[in-house]
User: Fold these one by one.
Assistant:
Number 1:
Amino acid sequence: MRSAAMLSLTVALAAVLCEPTLSSASADDQAHAAIAGQVTSAAEGAMEGVVVTAHEHGSIVSVSVVTNAKGHYAFPENRLVPGHYTLAIRATGYDLSAPAAIDVVAEQTSNVDLKLVPTKDLPDQLTDAEWMMSVPGTDNQKAVLLDCTSCHTLERIVLSTHDVDEWMQVVHRMKGYGNVSQPVKPQPMLDTKRAGSPEQYRKLAEYLATINLSSTDKWAYPLKTLPRPTGDSTQVIVTEYNLPRPTIEPHDIVRDKDGNIWYTDFGEMFISKFDPRTLKLTEYPIKTFKLDAPVGLLSLAFDKEGMLWFDTMYQGAIGTIDPRTGKTTYYPLPAKWNYRGVQLNFVGLRHDVDDKVWTKEVGQQYVYRLDLATGDWQRFHPTDSLPDAAHHHYGIYQVISDAQNNLWMAEFSEGYLGKIDAKTLQVTWYAPPTPHARLRRMEVRPNGDIVVTEYRGNKVAVFDPKTEKFTEYSMPPGTYPYRANFDKNGDIWASTMSTDRVVRMDPKTGQTDQYLMPSDTNMRTVYVDNTTNPVSFWVGSNHDHAVVRVEPLN
Ligand code: HEC
């Protein structure tokens, strides 16, 4: 969305150039600003919480700041090199009244006041969370939409005209795509059984036909929007580094000790290293084991020796890449278990304890343990001990190792947290207080606590293995957190595929800041960077092929 808006701004730019005007920005804003000004509209006057983005023609970098309570914005001069910039905004319900562009000159503040007018295309501006708030339906009905937001936004669904019969076919087609897919690159799974049959989606199809345009030209329901950021949530600089192809989907992100950003490409066979100082991108090719299977990688994490481990999803292997040399090593699943449609995700990485790594498979829900010394693989089916396992299709999302290399498992269909004891191999499942929470990503805290996101539960939970108790923290409405972690100050950071807002919560008070991204980011991981003051963090924009840095100012 952002790219399209930028393009039209650039095209229109030749026609209307914003003349520098006398700015109403405060003296303080201007002191160190490259561009500063005020954002107003007829309806609201000065507008708080408007994201203003500056993009230099031809650059891969876009920098965004947010207007304060007086409607003022200011780009610090050390963030914009001299050059010709277009300005874009994000404020749901509004567009710029005219294209805005300005030359940044060294050691001068260029003043640009921006006028906003009501948008002609509100539906195009809604986030998934806002569609979920707007559409009619019970919580149970709406919850199924949480399975439709990973590859594209809900806009496609509500704008469609499919009736019930068509919806059964469409949903069946969707369920046959590997989750590495995007509309620019559909990737059908080899395991066609996983999609089930069209008939099994009748109930869902009946619901979908009540929220789209199958029987009406205009939605009968009003479109609801989330409030714009206020107060501390406006005190942030967001830098987006655009990646060269729309098929790149940065998924898991880690920063190495030299400041390079590493990410798995969810849509292609690369592990990539991005240096934000030089803007150099190095893509390391990863081996394709099955030419006809979907391509893309999900997890990425350092082990204790500084080696990066990754999964290869539908390619049926896990592997390592040495960040110093780029050398890769692969551990494919043994042939007897490596069926055509296999999907391996996540690696449990405390082999410094016992020389063993864990991983798990999605379609049939096996957990595997590889002995690195002998090359032997073991296989487990831990969901067997969950309630009524024979009639319930349980699914494990992430697995992660604790300090003893016990395996922790986040169950995604209902929401159990599981453990496999590394020594006794005993399986234990724990149920969080929130029913149907759907557990997704985990972190192990230095004290051994397990941090886990409750995707449907809309909470972040912390499980203490000593007391076997969960503590749950409610996220802002519509967040549906994907991944969360604590920073060095004890704040929780969470990513979301729904609101486009990175959440920062003080768990002691429950207070949150929400940093609104400049565009549809569909974040998966947050990487909390504790080396900066204040703490900053990185997210991958899965839908908008960018690496994004978020720097709160306080
Ligand atoms: C695994 C990725 C993925 C998921 C999850 C997904 N989709 Fe899609 N969707 C796609 C792709 C790829 C396309 C474009 C290719 C196509 O139309 O088959 C698409 C296109 C669409 C379209 C537009 C095309 C049409 O036929 O109208 C609709 C509507 C749609 N999806 C609905 C849904 C619904 C409803 C869900 C949730 C039940 C969903 N999608 C979940 C990948 C996905």
Note: Confidence is low (pLDDT under 50) at residues 1-30.
Number 2:
Amino acid sequence: MKKWTKVLKWLGIGLGVLVMVLGVALGGAYAMSGARMDAHYEIAGRSFDVPSDEAAITEGRRIFMSRGCGECHGEDARGRVLIDIPLMRIAPPNLTTMASTFSEPDWDRAVRHGVSPTGRPYVLMPAHELWYMSDADLGRVVAYLRSLPASPSELPANEIRLIGRVLHVLGAMPVVPAELVDHDAPRPTPPAVAETVAYGEYLHWACINCHGEHMSGGPMPGAPEDVMGIPANLTFHETGLRGWTREDLYTLMQTGRRPDGTSVNPEHMPVRISRHYTELEVGALYLYLRSLPERPFGER
Ligand code: HEC
Ligand code: HEC
């Protein structure tokens, strides 16, 4: 009897110590992530041309939808609660009310560096993918947003909660995209708008968040599968798009229908975004996907 009391006592102490160590580690991760969100970024921001003709504004709206801005900031750009889960609450802001107050360098800083006019790094604003956006495309998006009447909306504050911060510190989730941008790198020369591998590469940044940097799909780290689904392999491996034609890819992106007649879950593969791609853009993406090394499913 006595022996067991002792064992239980030590077990109790052991557990207590474990809980304490865990508590200290979690508290540390919370603070560390917080400090990184409070960091200050000094970025000059650069200017670019903003056109004002109708055609540019219409094209700006299409780019706003096809690059996913509309998905996060709302189709009407008035912001919305994107996610509210134990990990975090993210409510991308209203872009109609600030559009007229942001200068061109402010837009460059926000969209391509993920940093506010005061130097605060934005959370979950995917600047590391949007960094590649050309002046011409950004100029038309800004033209579109400035053409919208300012229309205020009520939104809750963003909140990165404990587990979200742990994933941030572990490098499993790009909570502060500004950390992933090389802010001093020269702007890349954008490829010509044409059905080429280079233009497909320019466009594929809108797909990697889900399909992975190597485009071979698999479960998204930290994302609930019932909400996000499991992104498919887009390389031409046998577990991917082998046998797909350019038209097959176009039909899928327009309608969600696969060549075998089945459909993707439109809540998982966002057809509401991909249907805004032009035939030329899909053709360029197709050539780019074909140019990639074939990888088995799930290597992300
Ligand atoms: C994955 C979701 C997501 C996508 C895609 C996205 N944004 Fe954001 N964006 C956010 C979040 C979240 C914030 C605010 C973060 C914060 O305040 O820390 C933000 C902030 C901004 C801001 C700063 C607004 C302000 O009031 O300071 C601008 C401008 C902006 N986004 C423009 C865009 C444009 C243009 C695109 C498309 C090219 C885009 N965003 C795509 C999530 C997104
Ligand atoms: C928000 C996440 C997300 C984004 C962004 C996204 N996809 Fe997907 N995609 C998915 C998911 C999840 C599936 C699997 C859906 C299913 O099986 O129901 C999928 C499936 C597909 C399929 C079907 C493949 C097959 O074998 O069934 C194609 C093709 C595809 N995506 C292309 C693209 C392209 C091209 C882009 C970028 C322009 C893109 N996706 C952007 C999440 C995404």
Note: The chain has a mean pLDDT of 94.
